[in-house]
Amino acid sequence: MRKTLKLSAAAVALTLLLAGCGGGDLDSIDYENQGEGKAPSVSFETPLKVDEPQTRVLEEGDGDQIEEGDTVEVNASLFNAEDQSSLGDTYSEQPITITVDDTLKDQLPEIYDLLMGNKVGVTFAYAQPADDAAAKQSGGSQQQGGQSPGNAVEIYSVDSKILSEAEGTEVTPPEDLPDVSFGEGDPQITIPEGQDEPTDLVAQDLIEGDGEEVGAEDSVFVHYAGVRWEDGEQFDAQWTGQPASLSLSQVVPGWSEGLAGKKVGSRVLLVVPAEKAYGTAEELGENAEQKPAGSLVFVVDILGRSAPAENADASAQPDDGTMPQDGNHGSPAPAESSSDQ
Fold this sequence. Notes:
Layout: E1 30-32, E2 41-43, E3 54-59, E4 71-80, E5 86-89, E6 96-99, H1 102-107, H2 109-116, E7 123-127, H3 130-139, E8 152-162, E9 169-170, E10 179-181, E11 188-190, E12 202-208, E13 219-228, E14 234-238, E15 244-247, H4 253-259, E16 267-272, H5 281-284, E17 296-306
Antiparallel strand pairs: 1-2, 3-7, 4-5, 4-6, 4-8, 7-8, 9-12, 10-11, 12-16, 13-14, 13-15, 13-17, 16-17
């Protein structure tokens, strides 16, 4: 499973709490944007040390104002503060998300304040004293998205906002499709009585968004819920909180075929026959206890998208906590991948 950077986190095992004297601070950072989809060029005086957590804007944003409650899509690059060596980046993998909320304000107030005062497109640097990072690691203090990597220089670029829910033009679906109703909690999906299991894939807009069109190889940020056609029982949902992040190249055909071509902001009803889901109980065999068999119905809010990274490993699954990882819950990853998760 590939490693994906998290907010203020790289692989902790790759970082060292190194002592040093002299060197530079965030003002010594020389930053150059290398273009869309590419990690920036960064250099700074070494060793770079700060006495307290600090941020510095490296490039102003020109998009929408970032506001309280927004979830933003971010690419990150991390560097060893002692020698500028790379600790990894998300540009060759998959972006992360940061929610600008009270949790971020409590745990990383400097980043919260910076985001609240800037626009989409902003790129900024962040660093904290090595002693603070070590205390958070040893004390188990969890930041949003993970632990601190210690003596590191962290560069973040805000690429876009992620919607909190579908928005656009409401669409009246045909009467013979499952009914979807909304109240508190997860949406309620009701299977029509007396209908045979579907044999064709249906991807029906309930709300037609007006955002970017989703490509067949894109990653999408979604809220979703799914039920079995057989009995209408819900087997999985991620409808509140952080959106699920998944690649359309790594999900069941009903998702990849049904969501490709839809627009960000759309709410989509997916009626997925067994052959485009996980298969029949007979076909699943031992996996029938872990994956829902037969035809399935999903309602999906498409909250954002990102184009595939040029060097991404299409066979890998993200481990940033934004996608359901437990194969027992029927997340839309292919049935055959459950043993790999």
